[in-house]
Amino acid sequence: MVRCFCGIVKAEMSNENSDNIVLSAHRQVVDHLDMIVSEKRLVHSYIFVGLAGMGKDIIARHFMRSLLCTTSSSGGCKECQVCRLLSSGSSPDLFRLDVMEGETQISIDSVREWQRKLHQKPVFSQFKIGFISEAERLSAGAAHALLKTLEEPPDNTIIIMLVPSPENLLPTIVSRSQSLYLPSLSEKDLSRLLVPYCDEETAKIVTQLSARRPRRAAQLLADEAEIAAVKEAIEESYVLLGATEFDRLQRINNRLTGDFGENKIAAQKMAEAVVVAARDALLAQVGASAAAHLRGYQASTQQVSQRLEMNDLLRGLENLLLLERKWEVNANPRLAIESLLLNI
To answer: Which residues, in sequence order, are bridge partners of residue 180?
Structure first.
């Protein structure tokens, strides 16, 4: 066992352990996918919907193994050549549609090239898979071109798309696909899933720091430095939320000239920290028990809950959720964070 930031981690958080946490967290969706594969009740297009940290990619990978593996229809055998090729990203039956390097959106030319590849015959499996991991980044032209594939899919082809929200896609794309939603868990349920890998106190704190998102929780358990960075961001969020409007503007301007002025990942993590702090302050305002609060921040929580009205906190949480749903199509992290924090 190794010492963690606040307790004991019982085992290294391997990729397999991380996958198990996510698959267990979304067991209902996983069971549904296993059933439709085994009973051959498939449609030609699926959309996995969930905010960052929910584990959309892990659920999609499970589904892809189920579709392509010739041995097992429940997540694949993970040992055969087909599963090994899929794990390494070199399966000849998997066709990815990604944003080209240096671009911010998926272009119509990329979609057309991808469509041509989908007309190839499968090499090892019954199916071919067209995978779009950031479908929210389809340009307007690319999205309309994709509709052609959904309306007239090539034989033995399954399209899989990942998005934060169905609002990120054309309604006609959503209507021609089956959407599967990956929600956050209750604190109790996610903590229970983490306990095999850490002690109960660590599980509860990581659950709170991750905003109850299973993949994010597994990432935090695997990296003590990441936990420290999240805690620092939360502490800064309390300072920002508790500041006067003038001080908040100054702090935002100083911060935006730093690491997340143009860094989307850093800005996303800061936004996640703001929602954790705002949620905790909101719980204090409604009189929630001490056990419901984030540990170690009681004084800061009380200060923010007294500084801001309930409507301010609710508006801030609403703005954050809207920001997360539209994040990937917002090319300017500076403007996104500035808008979020100045509207609380």
So the answer is: 48
Nearest alpha carbon to residue 253 among 149, 323, 178, 335? 335
Give 154-203 as a 3 state SS string: CCCEEEEEEECCHHHCCHHHHHCCEEEECCCCCHHHHHHHHHHHECHHHH
Q: Which residue has the tokens 């860094």?
A: 263
Q: What is the DSSP string of 256-315?
A: HTTTTSS-HHHHHHHHHHHHHHHHHHHHHHTT--GGGSPTT-HHHHHHHHHHS-HHHHHH
Tell me whether residue 9 is exposed, middle or buried, using C-beta atoms within 10 angstroms of its C-beta: 0 to 12, 13 to 18, 19 or more.
buried
Element (H, E) at 56: helix 56-68
Give dist(CA 204, CA 210) in Å, integer: 10
Tally of helices (H runs) and strands (E runs) in the chain: 16, 7
The SS3 assignment for 10 reads coil
- Determine how β-strand 2-3 pairs with β-strand 8-9: antiparallel
Name all domains of the chain by residue range, CATH numbers in brackets.
Answer: 27-181 (3.40.50.300), 223-342 (1.20.272)
Average per-residue pLDDT for the chain: 82
**pLDDT tens figures, 20-56:** 999 999 999 999 999 999 999 999 999 999 988 999 9
Report the C-alpha gap between 254 and 252 in whole angstroms: 5
pTM (2 d.p.): 0.78
Measured distance CA(217)–CA(190) in Å, rounded: 9
What are the angstrom distances between the C-alpha of 37 and each of 74, 153, 186, 191, 225? 8, 18, 29, 30, 40
User: Do residues 106 and 97 make contact, with C-beta atoms less than 8 angstroms apart?
Assistant: yes
